[in-house]
């Protein structure tokens, strides 16, 4: 069976920087949630912070998928159909 390789997150350095920044933001927000829970913070504050973490992760995921979709659709000469189907499944997994 041939080894299946997947493309990198992004060939575009600017897109990769945006993705990493979003993930770092989510990382910081998650650290704040953990600290809030450990400090027995108000549940409303914890829920709002969790919502921010979730949105930051979703946005990072959408950036990853949109980057891959752009590369798939602009790649000359390749049969992108299987990759497009896989990207669609990944996109829907974030919904």
Characterise this structure.
- The chain has 95 residues and is mostly helical.
- It contains three helices and no strands.
- The chain is elongated.
- The model has no long low-confidence stretch (mean pLDDT 81).
Number of H- or I-type helical stretches: 3
Major β-sheet annotation: none
Mean pLDDT: 81
Following the backbone from N to C, one meets helices and strands in this order, namely: HHH
- By DSSP, the count of extended strands is 0
Q: Which term fits the overall shape?
A: elongated
The share of residues in helices is: over 70%
Salient structural properties:
single chain; 95 residues; mainly alpha; 3 helices; elongated
Question: TL;DR?
Answer:
The chain is an all-alpha fold. The protein contains three helices and no strands.
Topology:
Blueprint: H1 13-38, H2 43-74, H3 81-93
């Amino acid at each position: 069976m041939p080894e299946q390789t997947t493309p990198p997150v992004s060939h575009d350095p600017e897109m990769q920087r945006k993705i990493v920044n979003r993930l770092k933001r989510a990382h910081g927000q998650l650290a704040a949630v953990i600290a809030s829970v450990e400090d027995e913070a108000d549940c409303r504050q914890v829920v709002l912070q969790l919502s921010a973490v979730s949105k930051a992760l979703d946005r990072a995921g959408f950036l990853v998928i949109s980057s891959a979709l752009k590369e798939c659709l602009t790649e000359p000469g390749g049969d992108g159909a299987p990759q497009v189907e896989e990207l669609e499944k990944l996109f829907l997994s974030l919904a």
